[in-house]
Request: fold
Amino acid sequence: MNFNQVNRTSPEKGVMIVKNGESSSAFTVGGPVNFSMDATDDGLDCELVSTGGAAKGTTLLAGMAMKPTAAGEWGPVQVYGFCSQVKLVRITRAATTDSFATRAAIALGDKLQVLAANDAVSRLGAGAVSDMQVGIAAAETRASSVGAASTTSDATLLKTENIKAFLRLV
Reply:
C-alpha cells in the first residue's frame, strides 16, 4: 500500500495495487471493487462488487478503482483519503416504462453505501446521525432531483454520475 508524501499541494491518499480477477469485465474509474477471496490469490485478486454480491461488497470492499483496468491486469485502487471520482447512482426506475424516482439531496458528510448490483454507491443517510465512523462519506453536496417521465428513447434503468468522497477503507 502506498501513501503519498505529506505535502501542502495535494490531499493525502492511500492506494493499493490489485489484480482484476474478473474473467472479462474491466474496472471503471470510481467504481467500487472487492476482494475475491476465492483461495487462489487472496488479498491480491479483486472483482466488481456485482460479481461478489452484497456481502462481499460491504465487508470485503477493497476500494475505488482509479483507472480503467482490464480483466487480468493490475491497477490502482484508492483505499483512503479524498477521492475525486466515486461512481454514484443518482436516480433509478424499475422498468423502462416507469418514471425515474425523485432523489433526496446529498449533504457534505452524508454516508454512502455500496450498491452491489450497480457497481456504484448511493446515499445511505445523514452523516450527523452516526455513532460509528463511515467508510465512504460524501465530500460535496448535490441538490435533490425531481422525477423524470419515461421516454421511449431512453432504455436505461438508472443514471449515474461521479461524486467526490472521503474514503476510510483501511
About this structure: Residues 2-79 form one domain. The chain has two domains: 2-79, 81-168. The chain has a mean pLDDT of 85. The helical segments are 49-59.
